[in-house]
Amino acid sequence: MSKKIYIFDTTLRDGEQTPGISLNVQEKLEIAAQLERLGVDAIEAGFPIASKGDFEAVKTIAQNIRKPVIVGLARAVEKDIEKAWEALKYAARPRIHTFIATSDIHMEYKLKMTPEEVLKRVQDMVSYAKSFCEDVEFSAEDGSRTRPEFLFKVIETAIKAGATVINIPDTVGYSTPGEFGNLIKSIVENVEGIEDVILSVHCHNDLGMAVSNSLAAVQNGATQVECTINGLGERAGNAALEEIVMALKTRKDFYGCETGIVTEEISRTSRLVSHLTGVHIQPNKAITGANAFAHESGIHQHGVLSKRETYEIMTPESIGLRQSQIVLGKHSGRHAFEEKLKELGYTHLDAEKVNQAFEKFKDLADKKKHVTDSDIEALLSEKVIQVPTIYDLEYFHISSGNSTIATSTVRLKKDEGVIQEAACGDGPIDATFKAIDRAAGVEVNLKDYYLRAVTSGKDALGEVTVKIGRNGDVFIGRGISTDVIEASAKAYVNAINKMIYESDMEG
């Protein structure tokens, strides 16, 4: 019988710590809902005491997501644990996740605590968390660099205090697979009571070995893997969920393990997270990159055509990639559109969101002969996952050329009124952004700009992602159009709307 490996997703906590990422509550909830459809066992929704936004996100996810365990992170201090429980108490399956560093370097220089003081803190704070919540996870931060004998004591102390999950992080991505696997093996062999808890690992990718270390841990007794979609996370990121899951599935003969992940949802989940975070997937990324199932070499192409298994160890369909069976266009009706949404897995949308999506589909169908699955998913991501609109782009006009100064005129709608402004710039997009700044009365810095084609062909949808900054905060906006300048203007207005909305929320 195969061993069950629990998948603990920390995209919304550790993944959001990726530099340049900023997700609002609605976006986090959308990702959490997709993670639920993906079949993850636990969702680490955030660090409730870190900010008001984090608290609200954990609380909202706890109130709305029912199947997975909902986890809130807390330092091993009372106020953190209390705040975590305040957000988590609405969950059907809550878990408090508390941690403290255990390596000599962290205890001496960061905590300024003795090993004895750390042991007492573990005892007291795990017990305190247990008084609120039956399910308590304890993490020994920098566990991979902790003296094994001391680590064993820490783990035993946490178990006796009531921990139900023990997590061993490779916090700085220092370990190698052989080394980390041996550490997990030694814990299994030397820690009293370890057989009664879930043994978890959390690996970072600083040396590019997060997935390898996680799999080595599974081989040696770990029963939970903490990971993120697309490998997001601090510095070089975390172990990528999709790579771990597909490695265990594809090489079940070797690992003898299985997960509860609905692998056909992997591709959609990856795209959603990429879209909302603004972190794009490298083409040669394993499992979910654009080239993951592409074959350029003639020899490879011949082999695949003759028998797919010659060069493909998994099928595109196994992660949710498939060819469209229904071609939609401007003559397609609402019924066909709704059937397409069901085919793509969007069965959770309410009537209002379907109406919004259908209206945008008809607008797009007037511009394109055929509307693809990717087009529809892009429209849904743009229109359905939105903050309240403060400013709406009503009109823009560009005057530009290689021997003239680019000028842009924009008209923004706010409430029942309109604001029109014009500006010059270094090209039509720069001019448009400056005109929008004037119309909205804001001063922001453009941190990043990214344009990609959603589909192929001369009438391809262009998706623009912009990142703007103000007072140290970063806001991400997105826009979709067959016109690059329009997509850019939409993205910029979307980012400004988010900035104003989140400022109002914080206020």
Primary descriptors:
single chain; 507 residues; alpha/beta; TIM Barrel; 4 domains; 8-stranded parallel barrel; 3-stranded antiparallel sheet; globular
Question: In terms of topology, how is this protein built?
Answer:
Elements: E1 3-4, E2 6-9, H1 25-38, E3 42-46, H2 52-64, E4 69-75, H3 78-88, E5 94-101, H4 104-111, H5 115-132, E6 136-141, H6 148-160, E7 165-170, H7 177-190, E8 198-203, H8 210-219, E9 224-227, H9 241-250, H10 252-255, E10 257-258, H11 266-277, H12 298-306, H13 334-343, H14 351-365, H15 373-383, E11 392-401, E12 404-414, E13 417-425, H16 428-440, E14 445-453, E15 462-470, E16 473-481, H17 484-506
Parallel strand pairs: 1-10, 2-3, 2-9, 3-4, 4-5, 5-6, 6-7, 7-8, 8-9
Antiparallel strand pairs: 11-12, 12-13, 14-15, 15-16
